Amino acid sequence: MTTSFQRFSSVAKINRFLHITGQRESGYHELQTVFQFLDFGDFLEFKKNSTGEINLLTPIPGVDNDNNLIVKAAKSLQQHSNCTVGVDIKLDKNLPMGGGLGGGSSNAATTLLALNKIWQLNYTTDTLAALGVKLGADVPVFVRGFTAFAEGIGEHLTPVDIDAPWFLVTIPDCSISTAAIFAAKDLPRNTAKMTIENINIAACHNDCENLVIKLYPEVAKMMAWLLEYAPSRLTGTGACIFSSFEDKQSALTVQSKLPDGVKSFVAKGLAQSPILAELKQIA
User: Fold this and answer.
1) Active-site residue (options: 42, 47, 117, 138)
2) pLDDT of the chain along its 283 residues, tens only?
3) Which domains does the chain show, CATH number per domain?
4) Which helix or strand (DSSP H or E) is residue 214 part of?
5) Distance CA 67, CA 104 (A)
6) Spatial distance between the Cα atoms of 54 and 65, rounded to a whole number of angstroms
7) Is 13 an annotated catalytic residue?
8) Which of 13, 47, 72, 117 is catalytic?
9) Does residue 92 carry a catalytic annotation?
């Protein structure tokens, strides 16, 4: 067995826009969005064990290990493959929960991708994405690892070439339940569908934004402040807000002016997740 841990990126995503175009009888919402990765996120470390057990050595406070998407992803892959090898896992957590940055989904995808290599299962990306969507609608985009136009419930992905600005991401002091936002009666659900050929991100919007601003004063206050400095938008169902800048220094300048106590980070938009290059380094 490998005697040392192998470390992999588990980056954040933002939704450059989020249009809700309908709702299925199952309750799931039909979406159109563009996912873009950021050069900021969590890190996961893995080491095989011979016990067959899935051990998360760094629990998240308030989250039972069995409910953690990392553990769920590892067990799903183990059961699907009938693999008898286990793994010890460490999580270096930087992304907030309930922020709309996809931290849990990213963790699950990194787990699937890394263990597919470490356990030498040799599954295709399509197979891993199919396992991933059962864990969460956002997991497949992290498995595939490219900037994508997403449709359906977020699982139908088409690569898309868009700009990659610098972003200031602010983290209001609240955690927002995605399920609660999507269950709200006054959430818009009838935005007209677009095609990938006529995407104009600047002219798009986030259908969850007005509802979140109405329900969460912390988000409303932060959004109003940021809009004085740069184009700003909610990511996913929130609570995080991303503001776009042409260069890093401009983002850092506004970050330095943020009100006391506001958590934030500055990151570059990416066309591809770094884990794809990291996986190639494994023999």
Assistant:
1) 138
2) 556 999 999 999 999 999 999 999 988 899 999 999 999 999 999 999 999 999 999 999 888 998 999 999 999 999 999 999 999 999 999 999 889 999 999 999 999 999 999 999 999 999 999 999 999 989 999 999 999 999 998 879 999 999 999 999 999 999 898 889 999 999 999 999 999 998 999 999 999 999 999 999 999 999 999 999 999 999 999 899 999 999 999 999 999 999 999 999 999 999 999 999 999 998 6
3) 1-283 (3.30.230.10)
4) helix 209-215
5) 11
6) 10
7) yes
8) 13
9) no
